[in-house]
Design a protein that fits this description.
- There is one protein chain.
- The longest helix is centred in the C-terminal third of the chain and has 34 residues, at 265-298.
- Strand 2, helix 3 and strand 3 form a beta-alpha-beta unit.
- This protein is of the alpha/beta class.
- An 8-stranded mixed beta sheet has the order 7-5-6-4-1-2-3-8, with helices on both faces.
- It has 2 domains: 2-226, Alpha-Beta Complex (Spore Coat Polysaccharide Biosynthesis Protein SpsA, Chain A), CATH 3.90.550.10; 228-298.
- It has helices spanning 16-24, 28-34, 51-61, 76-86, 106-114, 132-148, 165-173, 181-188, 211-225, 228-258, 265-298, and strands at 2-10, 36-44, 65-70, 91-94, 119-124, 157-164, 192-197, 305-308.
- The chain is built from 11 helices and 8 strands.
- Helix 10 runs antiparallel to helix 11.
- Bound molecules: uridine-5'-diphosphate (UDP) and magnesium ion.
- Residues 9-11, 13, 45, 73, 75-76, 79, 96-98, 100, 202, 207-209 line the site of uridine-5'-diphosphate (UDP).
Length: 309
Amino acid sequence: MKLLSVIIPCYNEEENVRDFYDELFKNAPFFQEKGIEVELLYIDDGSVDKTVQEVRKLRELDERIHLVSFSRNFGKEAAIYAGLQKSKGDLVVLMDADLQDPPSLLPEMYGYIEQGYDSVATRRVTRKGEPPVRSFFARRFYRLMNRISRTEIVDGARDYRLMTRQVVDAILAMSEYNRFTKGIFGWVGYETKWIEYENIERRKGETKFSFWKLFIYALEGITAFSTLPLTIAAVMGAVFCIFAFILIIITVVRTLIFGDPTSGWPSLVCIILLVSGVQLFCLGIVGQYLSKTYMEVKRRPIYLVKEDF
Ligand code: UDP
Ligand code: MG
């Protein structure tokens, strides 16, 4: 018998807890045929609705249901980490509670694991049903990210992923505080098979990620997996120095030849504004990395548990 751990991060998903369970076990004949035992790990990320109660109700029906609930909302990344830590399975799969990650793909994914892949990942090829502004920025983000980071981050990649124990242990070994899972998956490597599917809209409830939350998440991804912004800051500083040096020589020479008429105040003000702007910008970039380092150095726990069964 093989054990499959299914990790479901839930944040205010009371309507979806039961639906997810029913949908997943539509695969029951497949699990039986392959000799797969299943454990369901609902990770409650500090929900303020009845998510925990729903999971407890399910547990009374089925011993295979488990729950870790957090003391407050720590974010999906923390929930994924907690799930991976709790999982005992030889295989582990991460899925959203809202059924945007269709459990019906599991048999196909399992097939690739049998073929020897270490991990089977999914990406959606369409962004149907998503606000256009969000899609636009998401595309830009992935383009940029893949230019500036050596870690491959796939456009449209979901967190829906089936992994072997080896891959899970590798991810767990990355115990960093600033977790950007999409990057972590790419960073650990291993042989990954990509499966594509059309975007499915959330079954019930609402998305937990606003545009700004995603925007900040994207910035975090950049600082977590690239130091190119720091290099850009340094290069910009160097370019401005060279430029200023040339200007100084021109000014000195001009003064020696043509005397010293006091002119050029407007241009001076513009230059001061530009240069101080660039300085602040670069300082901001350094500040971003410093703040990340600061959080990392504190070694705070990634999540705090309230209930665990
Ligand atoms: N989620 C979470 N913590 C959060 C936000 C979201 O655990 O702070 C979970 C949520 O319950 C869902 C999954 O992460 O199972 C994906 O969230 P959502 O569907 O809202 O994101 P979207 O699919 O819109 O990107
Ligand atoms: Mg969703």
